[in-house]
Amino acid sequence: MNRRDLQKLAEIRLKEATILFEAKCYAGAYYLAGYVIECALKAWIAKNTKKYDFPDKTIVNQIYTHNVEKLIGVIGARVPKEFEINWTVIRDWSEKDRYEEHTMEEAKDMLKAINDPNEGVLRWIKEHW
């Protein structure tokens, strides 16, 4: 899987999460929305990977995670101030959310935090991926 694959997958997961939300499948919408950010951050990491460089084992081990806070740490980025409020909604997402119920409000907040045209975290990540 390469950077372009991850970018495309982020867009697909956003579309799927939106469809699930519109179908009132809020738990699924919330869960898939988290993968939007995971894939987008991994695309950013892929962009920063230098061709022909042998990757540091510590970094390789760190990127095989679903934890978006750890992925931001690997990138070494700081969430800009204008995205901080939305990042607080996203940062606690976990792949374990597939086992949890999530309300309409939680799913709505997650999708807004990701895709808001002005302060959505995906907009910031796309500037770097």
Automatic annotation (TrEMBL):
InterPro entries: HEPN_dom (IPR007842). Residues 7-126 form the HEPN domain. This is HEPN domain-containing protein. It comes from Ornithinibacillus halophilus.
